[in-house]
Amino acid sequence: MEADLNQWIRTVRKWLAIGTGVGIEAGPRNLNVVVARVRPSGAQILGSLTIHNFREQPASEWGSVYANFLAKLGAAHLAAVAVLQRGEVTVRPVALPGVVKKDIPGALLFQLDSLHAYPEQEPVSGWARIGRTDSVLVGIARRETVDYYNNLFAEAGVKLAALTFSAPAFYGASRLLSDPPAEGFLALEETDGQTEAYGESEAHGIFSAIIPAPAERARGMALAELRLAPETEPTTFAGLLPVPLALPEDFDLSRNAVPYAAALAGACPRLALPLNLLPPEQRQSG
Question: Where do the H-state alpha helices sit in the chain?
Fold first, then answer.
């Protein structure tokens, strides 16, 4: 019965994999943008754009570059899914056994203050149930961070459907056209001597963290947290995602894994993990 249900879910998911999305990674220096088209047969990269040092430019100027880029791809009508830097979000999986969906917000409210490290600031939070488990993934950011990006993108004329972070983007994208390893996995990405880790296991559900160590050292720490075998070989963030059927000649998937995952979430929102830190009244649609 369980096998039949899983097969039915995979079939439905495959035929819902239709759409075009815009993904944005708001990095510490650069804004990386990817536009992707999804069909049941696979995903295509329609184009990518990097706006260097976007925080130091007038938003109206780089916003015009962004608008022209989308217009050339016939995607000017689309609202984007933007991904915050991992360090700007506190991420926690929370087990809520026996709690029905309508009672989850109340159950989380009692725990919220113990889940983040912003005691002096008002937090913004969002959650989504992890598959068919009793656990939810919770993301918490400072309100000033959410307001900063919301105002920045509005000034640039960028329509936002969602403001999220890497973990929900990877969770949905890794299941869009295939299934991740059932026994669990780990993906690592090292930058400037520190490593972002994303992994899943039966013991931990979703694990997402910034580890202040090179990838080789971070590997052992993350595997221990996930309770995966020490010999487990990690993949890269790009290795979690569907291999594009077509892409521009100069497209670097390893450098654009995060905005690609966000673009897939924007293309197929019904198949994504719906964890959105943007207030509902500020979310736009294409």
Answer: 2-16, 59-72, 104-115, 143-156, 166-173, 215-226, 257-267
- β-partners of residue 142 are 123
Contact assessment for residue 237 and residue 170, using Cβ atoms and an 8 Å cutoff: yes
Residue type, 40: P
Give the count of beta carbons closer than 10 Å to the beta carbon of residue 61: 12
pLDDT-above-70 percentage for the chain: 94
The Cα 63–Cα 205 span in angstroms is 38
Residue with the two structure tokens 């990817």? 34
Question: Which strands make up the sheet holding 205-211, listed edge to edge?
Answer: 185-191, 194-201, 205-211
> pLDDT for 42-85, tens place per residue?
999 999 999 999 999 999 999 999 999 999 999 999 999 999 99
Whole-number Å distance between alpha carbons of 21 and 34: 8
Residue in the block written with tokens 């979690």 = 240
CA separation (Å) from 13 to 10, 99, 135, 173, 221?
A: 5, 26, 21, 12, 34
For strands 19-26 and 31-39, give the pairing: antiparallel
Cα distance between residue 173 and residue 179, in whole Å: 10
Amino acid at 127: W
d(CA 19, CA 134): 30
